[in-house]
Amino acid sequence: MPHLTSTQTTAPGTEFRTGFGIPGYAHPLVAPTEWGELTRPGTPLHWVVLNVADGPGSRPDPHCLQAAGRLRNAGVRVLGHLDAGHGAHTFAEMISDAHRYIEWYQVDGFLLDRCPTERGSLPAIRRTVTTLRAIRDGAHIVLGHGTHPYPGYAESADQLVTFSGSWSDYRWSQVAEWTADYPPDRFCHFVHGVPRPHLDEALRIARWQGASTIYFTDRTNHGGRSDPWETMPGYWDDIVSRIDTGVSE
Phi, psi (5° rounding) for residue 34? Predict the structure, then answer.
């Protein structure tokens, strides 16, 4: 296991531009406000995940197509959600889902959720990523590990999700030393249960640990019984303004 350290500084001359990676809101019919807010001019978005039904679904969904189209017309990158199942889902299953995402929603890339972290699974993930880039020119690939994986994964994708979890864990989290070899735009942090008074602290942690793509929310997973990413945080306008003005950066 790589050595862990609690601090990291951005390399000299590296420009740190924090923005949001949206893990995937609920269906546009269920969360119309959330999807509408994402097209507000000036919102610092790096990408938005479209998760129709734990993947692309069984048939094209006109509401999801409309939501994705509005984002892409606004210049926002839309990613399809592929579930790697910690290595349990097959190459064929993921590529089949990817083809449907491209055909139905013209996605710009993919988030491989529940991506394995161990060294032994790296060749299979490399094969998957290589194929995704072959079927979607210029695909933006994010590996959703949720924790620090074996370092070799950093060479296989555009970004890695190296933290996904609760605020109580995040505020005491540590960063793998090997991440210092890469710029902040290679790493993403998703944190739920962040209280409004701790937003500045959460932003500082992301900066110290070298992650420029973030999503913080005050929603919780209620002990694993709900998805904290499905709805917009109650302090959305507040966190957008903090990132726009560079607060805590």
Answer: -60, -50
* Sign for the pseudo-dihedral over CA of 174, 176, 181, 184: negative
Q: Do residues 119 and 125 make contact, with C-beta atoms less than 8 angstroms apart?
A: no
pLDDT of 13 strictly over 80: no
Convert 138-177 into a string of H (helix), E (strand) and C (coil).
Answer: CCEEEEECCCCCCHHHHHCCCEEEEEEEEHHHHCCCCEEH
**For 94-131, how does the pLDDT look when each residue is reduced to its tens digit (9 = 90+)?**
999 999 999 999 999 999 999 999 999 999 999 999 99
Q: pLDDT tens-digit profile of 231-247?
A: 999 999 999 999 976 55
Please name the residue ranges forming H helices in 12-140: 32-37, 62-73, 91-105, 122-135
Angle, alpha carbons 24-27-31 (nearest 5°): 90
Distance CA 35, CA 33 (A): 6
* Mean pLDDT within 117-146: 97
